[in-house]
Structure formats: C-alpha cells, structure tokens
Amino acid sequence: MRALSFERRVYLDALLVAAPAIALLAAWAWWGMPQSEAAWTLGSLAALLTLGLASRLRNRVVFPLYTLSNLLEALREGDYSLRGSRARHDDAIGEVVREVNALSQTLRDQRLRVQEASALLTKVIEAIDIALFSFDADRTLRLINPAGERLLAARREQVLGRTAQELGIEDCLAVEGSAVMRRPFPGGTGSFEVRRKRFRDSGLPHDLLVITDLSRALREEERQAWQRLIRVLGHELNNSLAPIKSMAATLAGVLAQKPPPEDWTDDLRDGLKVIGDRAEALSRFMIGYATLARLPPPSKSQIELAALLEHVSALEQRVAVQVVRGPDVRFSVDPDQLEQALINLIKNATEASLPQGGDVAVRWQADRAWVRIEVVDEGLGLGNTENLFVPFFTTKPGGTGIGLVLARQIAEGHGGTLVLVNRDDRSGCIARVELPRN
Prior knowledge:
- By secondary structure, this protein is an alpha+beta fold.
- The protein is 54% helix and 18% strand.
C-alpha cells in the first residue's frame, strides 16, 4: 500500500468500504436466486455502481489537494496573486484554503514592504556622499555607489567583479574596525576615514567598506570659516576706515581754503578726535583678534573654585554679583584663563540685566568627573542664537564680539564646553561652563 500513490490508496479504500455489501449481494445472487441472466445483470450493475461511487469519492478528495498544490507551487515561485475559491469556515478543506490565501496575502504584503525598503535603501546609497563598497568572501566587488565610482574614477560596470587587489584598495579592506588613512585614490588624494563591517548574505561572509573623504569636509569648513572671518573683518574695518577717510577729506578741504575759516581750529580738533576714536576702536579690534589667534595652551595648577569665583565676582562693580555656595571643589585648571572666561561671562550677564534692573548670580555643582559653573542673569534672554559664537560679531555699541568666543575657546582648551540657554523659571539666560576634574 505504501508504494501506491495517494489517489490509488483513496480509490482502493473506497472499494474496500463497499466490499462487504458487494460480497453479500453476490452470495445472495448465487445461492438465493436461480442462476439466470437477471442475477448476473444485477451483480454487474452493483459492481459498476460501486466503481463509479469510488471514483467520485476519489475525485472529491484528490482535486482539492491538487488545488492546494497549485497554490503552494505559486507561493514557492513568488506568485502571490493566485487565490483558492470556496474558502469556507465550516469545511475542513475550506479552512486550509483560507489559511493558504491568508499566507499568500501576508507574503505579498511583506514582499511589497521589502521592495519599498530596498528601493529607499538604494536611493539613500546613491545619494549619500560617502563611498560604499561591498565585497564577497573572495574579496570580489559586488556593490558600489556613485561616490565610490568617483573615488575610483571608474564606472560601475568597469569595477564590478574585480578584486580589491585589482582595484588597489586591498589595504583598506584589511582595516579592523576604523582607521584614518592618508593615501591617493584615482579620484583624489587626501585624508580618508576607512571603516569595515562584516555581514552575511545567503549565509556567506561579506565585507562592507565605507570610505569618507575627510579632506573635502575640512576644506569646506575652512572655506566657510574664512568667509565668516573676512566678512566680519571687512565690516569692522569699513566701520573704522570710512569715517576716517571722510573726515580726512573734510579736513583737507578746510585747510585748502584761503584764507581758512575762523573756526578751522575747532573743525580740525573735532576731526582729529573722530579719527583718533576710530583708530582706537580699530586698535581694540586688532588686539582682540590677536588674543583669539594666539591663545596659549592652558598652564594648569590646583585651585580652590570658591575663592576664584568670589574674586572674579568682586571685580564687577555695576551690580552686586551673588555667589551661591556649592560643594568644596579643588581641581586643576589655568586660573588666569578661567578668570578671563568668567569675567567675560559676568560682564555679558551684567549688561543683559542692567536695563531690566535684574540680578546676576554665580553658582556651581560638581561630581567625580565634572565641574559645572553657571552664570545666571535676569535679562531678556537669548533671541537669535545663530551668531552667538561668531568672532567679532556684536550687537552692543562699542563691543568687540570676542568675549563669548574667547570664553568658549578657553573652556574647550580645558577639554570642556560652554553653552548658553534661556532660563525656565523666568526671563534671563544661563551661561554654563563644564570642565573635567581630571
């Protein structure tokens, strides 16, 4: 029986179910009735009817299984559009068909999501300005994005299927984790960050190589920094040179008059005063620029933070700066640079609070790793913060625009940070300096 197909086993089982009835009918026809043509006819009809009903039973069992087989074959081939009919709740085969239909819909939805995610990933890989390469276990290139094509100065079809050694980037593929390398590529020379990650595709190991051009990013940052600096320098120089040039022309006109006007000495005195004031402002500007450009590395020594803050707060005479006591902290900093940074922050806080009649306070906190110093004012708070740390940018009359920049440079020179945030409890600003204790 096991060697027979499923269809034949069903057919034989149907015949076996009818076998006792057929045997009884044959016995009755043989012994109970005369052996005549009618008896043989009746027996033949019974046998044919049994065979027909067995065939019908076989078809009812086998044909739904063929349907399910076709549905499953379509799923295996990736065709999720076929659906089985007569999927009923109160039918065993109908329940199976319903589940197969549901499975087909689920697989269809999942494939659609995968295709959409794959399309998005492809777009991201093509748009990202970082060179991406994928190598198989034989170190053969299988994937490259447009940034990688530019780095290798070759089209995709020219490099796919070639080994890392043939492409000249075998040393990059030997990197463990990440590394910064300075080396030439066909598409350019400079500093590059190289990162390698392992992954598996179809059970086989692959390598993802990511190469970032650091030189271009640094050049772009440098270009933007120069543009900002030149813009501010040009603005400040024009502010000083324009009135000097105008006043010099006015004085030259006065001296050229024959005879000179009676009040020419007053005009000369006023003109020279304007020239002197603008020259002094320009001198302060250049001194501030030199201070930023030549800030030395911090010379650290152990200090008592409370004593330093009380000393710096006492230097401000326009308002009484409140020192809110914190924990006793002794740590290593450059006391001169830290004093200068705090003087600038307290000066800004005072100038923000004076028009509002507000107070200024200095407070600090500390843990095992960091010391946080905060200068709190009761001014109007921060508006546009875009240019807070742009060198020489200021909105205050007579300001130099280097106070905040110098304070942040000092904090970062100590391995710390300087941030300015608006207060939550009322109007005003908090200048927060965080410095490492070790």
